[in-house]
User: Which sequence fits this backbone?
């Protein structure tokens, strides 16, 4: 599985790509700093293993690192997560993330045909890409309950929010592709995209405000309001 476009080659990573592990991790870390958002940090060995197991997608422009994503199965292969999506800054805005995610999606479907595919994201671009692949926004209760997966969130700066809500909500939105359902990919109408954008901003407002003053009695009301809004928007 190799796709080439605009001189950028996207492929399933293998041992020859192990030297890119450092730049992959530093690009992910740097992007999280710029966005001021949380990430589930991965160590070099974890990424190395993904590459060795043929569970990672890498994009290169010549020898230059352009983008990356990996897949991992959870809950006895009932679920597969597509994680760690990153596109190096100079290659953004050319549809590269979309192509990487599509290849990760195809790889997930091939290796785990019966698994539900999911991802957690704070980004509108990823919500958009996922929607086009047939993912739907879901509550966290629909995602894997595999403790190991959720442990990955421990290194995120927003982990306290996840714990405070008994793992029901966080700044990330869960999205799921269920192969058993008719997940017809649908182009996202602009109106729907605006709803996603407002939803992400609203979550940040509610949770980060609640975080700043955890004794505030209004917090509970805000969280209840959030739950109702989620239900109204996405169910
Ligand atoms: C998010 C990211 C992966 C997007 O990469 P990219 O190659 O520029 O994305 P694409 O060009 O494939 O764009 C895909 C779609 O998202 C839209 N998009 C891209 N960046 C966007 C942004 N910052 N805000 C809103 N929409 C955006 C594009 O317009 C495109 O939609 P279209 O098909 O309707 O034109 C890249 O900006 C990045 O690596 N950011 C830092 C890491 C990150 O946020 N990772 C995701 C963690 S969940």
Assistant:
């Amino acid at each position: 599985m190799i796709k080439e476009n605009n001189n950028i080659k996207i492929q399933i990573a293998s041992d020859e790509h192990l030297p890119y592990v450092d730049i992959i991790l530093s690009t992910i870390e740097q992007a999280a700093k710029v966005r001021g958002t949380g990430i589930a940090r991965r160590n070099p060995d974890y990424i190395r293993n993904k590459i060795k197991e043929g569970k990672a997608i890498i994009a290169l422009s010549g020898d230059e690192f352009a983008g990356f994503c990996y897949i991992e199965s959870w809950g006895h292969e009932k679920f597969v997560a597509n994680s760690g999506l990153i596109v190096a800054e100079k290659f953004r805005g050319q549809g590269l993330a979309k192509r990487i995610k599509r290849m990760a999606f195809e790889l997930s479907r091939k290796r785990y045909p019966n698994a539900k595919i999911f991802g957690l994201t704070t980004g509108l671009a990823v919500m958009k890409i996922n929607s086009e692949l047939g993912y739907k926004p879901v509550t966290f209760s629909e995602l894997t309950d595999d403790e190991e997966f959720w442990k990955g969130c421990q290194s995120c700066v927003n982990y306290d929010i996840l714990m405070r809500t008994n793992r029901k909500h966080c700044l990330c939105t869960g999205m799921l592709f269920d192969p058993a359902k008719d997940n017809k990919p649908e182009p996202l109408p602009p109106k729907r995209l605006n709803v996603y954008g407002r939803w992400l901003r609203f979550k940040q407002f509610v949770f980060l405000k609640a975080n700043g003053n955890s004794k505030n009695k209004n917090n509970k009301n805000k969280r209840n309001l959030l739950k109702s809004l989620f239900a109204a928007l996405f169910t």
